[in-house]
């Protein structure tokens, strides 16, 4: 059987997962039990957020050809997934929205693919959408290929027009959506355009692990591509890893892919993507080869992290009440396990505090997904405000910069532009469409973009969309003003009372409702002024025997602001922490004692 390996590249919400659903349905690769919407997004977080976080594999059979599909995340924060799994592919399906065109995160993944020499196929999706302009999108995509330095062969890419949702595709735009259309033109192009893999089963084996999985029966699995020769169940092979002596082991199980499920196989030839078991300590990047031909492949390299956070053991007054895993040892073990799967993550011990770890990632979303995953697993911890990682280059301080693209209604553009300028951003491009939507493109320091998303959603009444990607390290932009408003801080332990909150809500915006347990130093809201304010949310109404007109009217509270994990991280200031448990998220000051807080505030002001 012939083999083709192809990755699918798309921006968030451009229809990548829906297209994979359509291809699996077309080739009848799913059983009745497996047929669900967005079958490749099998993590709860992926379904809730509508994004791909982990790269996955699927396989379909079409015209006597096995097509291995590699699903790549569309967000630049998960670039560590992208950089390693793209090596398994020989070409890519570039999926672009017929209305929005290529976006920054499309550019990020496409650049990696082109540098590997992949031959691209352009799929212009949602051609039946109102306002779609496939011709303009085609021109923009060609310009993007040219900017990324594509070769003349890569620039000669085929184009197919489709609607993944309605299951039709055509190489002729005028015929797209006709009655006889389905998604077969995409698969025909994959077979026609991608080079057929060559190689002899008699060649010495060379296999590299690009991903890790786990099976309850056989343990850890290494997923990768057979670059040369043949691999078989029961075969004795050699494991090669930098800085380690070669080790021999026996392959106990070999799995291929059929649809989205693993199926046991006896052997696999050059070009195929399989998973193997037999070695419990295999890692991403390891090479498995013939014992008589110890030939290692180049190690997998990923871009350096740009953002860091501190993960701490919870030491608040509510510590240990809600979490299952609360100790330093459990927190360290969980972070170390994450680095085995997440190659873009770095974890360092803090020499000043044994219960604190510095965790570095590719962006605040990358780290927030880790925090959310851990709290769902039963971990209880505290995290600090995300901070950018600074570098010294030629004796000068440099910081990471991002390209930011914002789509928003025209009437909100002025205030958003002013805020971006305040955060040391520099405008690259701005245009307004006939539909009244303005697109603003900025270059801004990553440090200035922390906390910007919540401002944007508030300012635009939720009508704006923002995307960003890492650009480069450049010179330090100088001081950027922090959060404009202070915090409302509880000065008592107990449960919040409606009467007390009714008086406090005049001072700012509340984060908690009545009947919520609080402690001294916990942040219960955002102050309307720029200073912190100590309040008593547990104060009861005193009872008297004197009644006055209107004194017993019902207390009416404004609904509190619901704070998501990302909103909490964006709200944090340097002297604040976020307490995360399986059931709660609480903002708090590092210094719980009000006298100590004032001392620290005076010390910071003098500095």
Can you describe this structure?
- The protein has 607 residues and is of the alpha+beta class.
- The chain folds into four domains: 2-193, 3-Layer(aba) Sandwich (Rossmann fold), CATH 3.40.50.300; 206-289, Translation factors (Elongation Factor Tu (Ef-tu), domain 3, Beta Barrel); 391-475, Alpha-Beta Plaits; 487-606, bipa protein (OB fold (Dihydrolipoamide Acetyltransferase, E2P)), CATH 2.40.50.
- Helices cover 23% and strands 32% of the residues.
- The protein is built from 15 helices and 35 strands.
- The protein has an eight-stranded antiparallel beta sheet with strand order 12-11-17-8-9-16-13-14, with no helix packed on it. The chain has a seven-stranded mixed beta sheet with strand order 2-3-1-4-5-6-7, sandwiched between helices.
- Strand 13 and strand 14 (261-264) form a beta hairpin.
């Amino acid at each position: 059987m012939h083999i083709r390996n192809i990755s699918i590249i798309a921006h968030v919400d451009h229809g990548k997962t829906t297209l994979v659903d359509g291809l699996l349905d077309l080739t009848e690769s799913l059983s009745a039990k497996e047929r669900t919407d967005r079958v490749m997004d099998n993590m709860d977080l992926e379904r809730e957020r509508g994004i791909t976080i982990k790269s996955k594999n699927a396989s379909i059979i079409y015209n006597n050809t096995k097509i291995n599909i590699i699903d790549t995340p569309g967000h630049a924060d998960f670039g560590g997934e992208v950089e390693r799994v793209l090596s398994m592919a020989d070409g890519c399906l570039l999926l672009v929205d017929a209305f929005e065109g290529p976006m920054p995160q499309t550019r990020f993944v496409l650049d990696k693919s082109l540098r590997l020499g992949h031959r691209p196929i352009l799929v212009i999706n949602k051609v039946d959408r109102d306002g779609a302009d496939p011709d303009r999108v085609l021109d923009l995509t060609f310009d993007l290929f040219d900017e990324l330095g594509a070769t003349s062969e890569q620039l000669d890419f085929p184009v197919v027009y489709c609607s993944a949702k309605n299951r039709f595709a055509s190489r002729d735009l005028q015929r797209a959506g006709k009655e006889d259309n389905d998604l077969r033109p995409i698969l025909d192009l994959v077979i026609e355009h991608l080079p057929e893999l060559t190689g002899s089963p008699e060649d010495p084996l060379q296999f590299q692990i690009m991903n890790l999985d786990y099976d309850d029966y056989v343990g850890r699995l290494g997923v990768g591509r057979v670059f040369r020769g043949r691999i078989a169940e029961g075969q004795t092979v050699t494991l090669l890893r930098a800085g380690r002596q070669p080790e021999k082991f026996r392959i106990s199980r070999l799995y291929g892919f059929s649809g989205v499920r693993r199926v046991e196989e006896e052997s696999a030839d050059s070009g195929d993507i399989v998973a193997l078991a037999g070695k419990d300590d295999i890692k991403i990047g390891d090479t498995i080869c013939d014992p008589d031909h110890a030939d290692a492949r180049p190690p997998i390299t990923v871009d350096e992290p740009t953002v860091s956070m501190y993960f701490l053991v919870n030491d608040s007054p509510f510590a240990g009440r809600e979490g299952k895993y609360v100790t330093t040892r459990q927190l360290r073990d969980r972070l170390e396990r994450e680095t085995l799967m997440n190659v873009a993550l770095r974890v360092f011990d803090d020499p000043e505090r044994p219960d604190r770890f510095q965790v570095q990632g590719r962006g605040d979303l990358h780290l927030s997904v880790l925090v959310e995953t851990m709290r769902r697993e039963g971990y209880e911890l505290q995290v600090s405000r995300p901070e950018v990682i600074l570098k010294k280059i030629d004796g000068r301080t440099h910081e990471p910069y991002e390209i930011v693209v914002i789509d928003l209604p025209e009437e909100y553009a002025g205030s958003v532009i002013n805020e971006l300028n305040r955060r040391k951003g520099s405008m690259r491009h701005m245009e307004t469409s006939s539909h009244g939507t303005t697109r603003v493109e900025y270059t801004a320091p990553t440090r200035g973009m922390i906390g910007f998303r919540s401002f944007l959603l508030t300012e635009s009444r939720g009508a704006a969309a923002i995307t960003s990607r890492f650009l480069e390290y450049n010179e330090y932009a100088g001081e950027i003003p922090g959060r404009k408003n202070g915090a409302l801080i509880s000065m008592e332990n107990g449960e919040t009372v409606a009467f007390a909150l009714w008086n406090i809500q005049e001072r700012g915006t509340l984060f908690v409702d009545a009947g919520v347990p609080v402690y001294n130093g916990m942040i219960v809201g955002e102050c309307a002024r720029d200073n912190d304010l100590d309040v008593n949310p547990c104060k009861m109404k005193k009872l008297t025997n004197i009644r006055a007109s209107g004194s017993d009217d019902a207390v009416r509270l404004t609904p509190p602001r619901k704070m998501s994990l990302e909103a909490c991280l964006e709200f944090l200031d340097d002297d604040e922490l976020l307490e995360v448990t399986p059931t709660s998220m609480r903002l708090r000051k590092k210094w719980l004692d009000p006298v100590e807080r004032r001392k620290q505030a005076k010390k910071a002001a003098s500095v």
